[in-house]
Amino acid sequence: MVHVYNCHPFASQQIVPTEQEPGLVCCGGGALFVVSAGGCKIEAFLLEEEGCPLICRFATMGTVQRILHKGLAGNQDLDDFFIFPKHQELLGEMAKDCGVKVSLEWTGMESESRDNLAITYILYRRFAPDFFQGCSVEDTHLHSLQLHPMFTNFCADGSRGVEPTCVFCFFSLPSTGYVYSVRGGVEMVSAYQYPEKAQQAVLTDLFLHIITKNALQCFSVRCAAVAARAEDPYIDTTMKACPPITMEVCALRIQLFIGLKALCHNRHHIVLLTAADVETKEDTEKATNRKSSFAKHRDPSEMGHGWNLYVVNTVPPLQLYNEMVEYSKKYEETNPLSQSCLHLLSEAHLLLRATLLAPRMRNPELQLAFQESCAQLGDCFSRLRDCHLALPYYKMSGLSVTEVISRNRCLSVSPCGYGKGFLFFLKHSLYDETMEELTEETANEVLDIFGAAEPSQLPHVIASPSMVRASPGSGLAHLESLESITGPAVPLTLSKAALALRMGDLQLYRQHMDRHAEMLQVYGFIEEPKLLLHGRGHAVVPTPLARHLMESQDGLLVAALVALHENNKVKLDEADLFFQDLCGKVSGLQGGPQLLVDFWEALLMASSQEAVIQELLFRLTSVYIDRVACRDSNGIKPLKTADDLINSCSHFGVIYPWVSILTPAHFNIVHDHQEDLQKLQSLLCGPTLDVSSILPLLEQLPDEDNAGLSLHVLCATKLGHHDSSIERLLDCCPEAIIPYANHELQVNKRALWWQKLLPELCERTRAAGEENTILLSALKETLVVVAMELNPLEFLDLLPEDGTAEFFLPHLLDCSKRNLMT
Fold first, then answer.
1. Where would I find the BLOC-2 complex member HPS3 C-terminal domain in this sequence (predicted)?
2. Can you give the pTM of this predicted structure?
């Protein structure tokens, strides 16, 4: 269906001063070329100047059969036709199967262009007349064919880019016309049903112009809708919108001319050739009353002037846009919910889009008109179907939320009240972190709007950072009314608690917070994160409720942020900023506020994302090392002790027995740092931490005391450096060597008992004498293990050659007995 609107896309017209009757015309590059009716003479005129002055006039070698301007666009003012049994359409690569062979015709330029030219099949369509429906063969006659490129990328000097954004294939029959998009896939964009038979048609970026026998007609096109989507990936999202490609086309104007014969177009000019029978009534009477049997030949100068060549100037797009907007208001006054009003506003919007897609046409006046067009479409969708489109159009309009509310306040006097589209826009805008902060008056009005239209949204609305100036008393009253209808719900109760806190009523705040268990409150914060924090990215700000929870229920606050992270409501870096802003300088601990470290530990227990786990392990290890190295404490107690983490988090391992010997539970350091040390040791004893990633951090921690020694030996052991670890323990804490060996020198490391540990102990015991009972005891325990593992000959090979073999005889005897038994 084609809608008809009596708009005025055509402005003034002027007659081209041709010397002889035109036969063929074409235009391009700002010039009009006219072939005389005899076909042997061509005149060129300048279209851009008043009066279309003559450029040149020249004769041709023979009769001109056809004339086209160079470029991708051209019309062919095709004579052959065929009858096929049925309609057929082949798109893209499938068009190769049409059975029609196409070959390039060379004109002597093949040496320069042969390598740059190729044939690509894009579309094949045939038409068959339906005689039973009154369709004749003439109705399938193809009279206009055009390949129309649309450029939106222009160079700095104003010249268009090499590649068009879109390419359209247009062809027309006497009664119908078709537009296909052929770049990036072939698909039909629009089909036109002409009110009367067309003789010729031409497609432009803005319009489709056709001529019938006695009228110039102007139709809307969808080129801008296609180009906009090809150029901007954000079209058809909540950010941006554009009228659909499938929207029905409309006839904007029918301008009468007598005897139209040919049509061509260039920029903002339409060129028309008319030729009519202008024989006067007197001439007819004279011919009737002639008595003689022969006719007198008249000189052409005596005959009437039966043809004209017109240049019709099209109206500037902005002027036509304004007329279409005024026209749409008539529909709106008659029926506010009329689809015709929306249709005409959409056509006007596409007209501006097509103009703005050319960078050279971008000017402030057009941009303002475009934004106003978006606002008008937003107004339409705020109360019509497809209400979700109100959001992107209002966003594109540049209007503030306050201005949109004001516009819809005027519209709400209608029986329908506030439309669904407006509520959709307002709801999403309130969730948007970039929305402006509303004044108290406007914020209270928003509460009233949702209280009447969508009360279920009130907890989310009240939590919006844009609503911080809303009256807490008014918000509490609305929530009380909602609760009386729906019953208690956790997000609703938390919202009431936040409002009570803003009012300074701590008793009412505690009353609401005590209504639900902490785990249910965590779920409530997942539903409405803005109760705890506002902003995103680098602009995260804790709410007053979050600040109060830090003082009163820090465990709940940490659990809530962990849940928000795990439900993709808060990123890790955003949570860092949240706690740093929340704690400020309250915590002077190394590595950041203690509450932030508590959050990392809690998140490590809950997260299953490998990248997050590795990041948290590195952060926690850095904090623990910093604190153990600096050894200063401010007395802030962590939420989780080392034992808590070992028992509840798989990434923290049970501390090895030999480590506990180095640093027992009552080790001589500050208690807080004893916890940090044990947490660090537990991570190193756990299965997940990549030890090599923290080696640079250990450089700040000396191994002169047992705390540092335990960490360095743990890392070395994890990396497989058992030899150096054995030497370090024998040097600094020999009482830990046997527990170390029993734990670490197993399976494929078993041979180190006699290859490394036994020689070291023998040498050190001999050097120390019988005074070092620790080394002597360790040597005896080592010999027991070696005697159990080796046969007598292997054991003898290990004995030192210093005359002390009698010391080893009991163990050699045990070795021999075990060997006899096996």
1. 319-818
2. 0.74
